Amino acid sequence: MFVNTxxxxxxxYWHNGAFHDWSEGGLHPAMHALHYGSCIFEGIRAxxxxxxxxxxxxxxxxxxxLLSADAARMACPHTKDQIxxxxxxxxxxxxxxxxxxxxxxxxxxxxxxxxxxxCPVELFICAWEWGAYLGENAARGVNTLIVPERRIHHTQFNxxxxxxxxxxxxxxxxxxxxxxxxxxxxxxxxxxxxxxxPGQNVFIVKGRKLVTNGRTESALEGITRTSILELxxxxxxxxxxGPIAKEDLFGADEAFYCGTAVEIIPIVTVTxxxxxxxxxxxxxxxxxxxxxVVQGLIQAFxxxxxxxxxxYEKWLTHVGK
Length: 321
Prior knowledge:
This protein has 321 residues and is α+β, with helices and mostly antiparallel strands. The chain is 24% helix and 29% strand. It has 2 domains: 12-128, Aminotransferase class 4, branched-chain amino acid transferase, N-terminal domain (D-amino Acid Aminotransferase, Chain A, domain 1), CATH 3.30.470.10; 136-305, D-amino Acid Aminotransferase, Chain A, domain 2, CATH 3.20.10. The chain is globular, with a radius of gyration of 20 Å.
């Protein structure tokens, strides 16, 4: 029996051609993904609009989902259009307005050698109501820790893919940050520059310029990140994609995380714990409070995803009835 305590309003999920009650489930302990993290996934959000729920940038998410499947050498049993239809059906099946959506493609039960030669590829799609990823107080700004472990390097795997097993590193960093009294972690890359958060991109603000990095800095080029670059330009800011040194982050006027789950969250302090043998130094970003640039971007983003900005209607896929 599975309860939905941590998955508000989740009632049904899709798997193997049918919807199932949330409390229903039975996966074999020898399924390949459970042992090796041999899965890929997407994080997607739908938002309430005047026309009903709409999925944010669904085609782009599904393109990345299939790219991730290819990177994991998985033959997805569904087309892009079929996955899009199943995602919309899952939102409708749960009667959700604003929600988080998680498609998961994985190697299932067949064999337990590292090479899943006898394991079928299966798809789950879940959806539930998920509010502020870092808590309701995160809008006031979060306190972050630069962890000593360096982000997996961009030469080691396709940084455009969301591979389940890779996120074990993210999980450990997130746990370590929280156990140390911080809200979230920041990774450096092997070169010692800022890479990303455990599941978020990082932006800094310097005057009228928004700066973020890209895949050659060992960061996922997120879909929310791409959207913010466009929003920023439309709001009259200069945008730049390039390396971010630790000193650039420490000296920024403002800084923030962005991602599907976290949306846009201001960073107000950064503690440098990158040297495990050295002292931890806390730096306050800008005024130590959410600044006007990030606050303006948050409002513009919310207007876009909720269908209040006709210019960005192109980003919305309406779920319908």
